[in-house]
Amino acid sequence: MVSLPGGRVSFVVGDVSGHGIAAALLMGLIHGAMSTPSWGTPDHDPEVAAAQLNDLLLTKSSAGRFASMFWCAYDPASGVLRYINAGHLPGLLMRKTTDGTWSIDRLTEGGPVLGVLGDITYRTASVEAHEHDLLALFSDGISEATNDRDDYFAEEGVTMVLQHCRGLSAAATCAAILSAVRSFTGGRPPQDDQTLLIVRLWRTMDRPVA
Asked: Is the CB of residue 143 less than 8 Å from the CB of residue 152?
């Protein structure tokens, strides 16, 4: 999570292929490239920055190493959420509709994973959000968690918990999803990193609880 000019905040979740030192070094390379300067600042267009990051990984990473990433920036003054999905699992935006029910939008716009194909164009998309809408970002360690029959928890498992947690805080929703994953897998140790970020959106200049 990074504070941006004008009271905006960006949220990023990514996943690097593989494990161990090589994966950690690639993660450090991505983190540094995104931090100086931060994506979403006036002089750093996210679409251009994503293409540059893709080229950097093609040049600097070893063969077969790549990364997925979901980046978004939220403006609490306008209620606009801008995002780029670079081959990552869709972000889920849960919001109340005009008839009082809740819908979940899958945020898929962007481009392919980073570090595989050259000369790629990435696209930002914008969605209108409202106070108390919920944003869920997660890695495949959550969706690909398996039970003793090798069934996946899947995106459907996440959306089911979200629907049951409509009125809960971000922290309580996060805990509920992780608890559901542990119950689904029978408490077995995870086979992959399980990253989960839940943000309850707001329409003031206060900082979010995530």
From this structure: yes
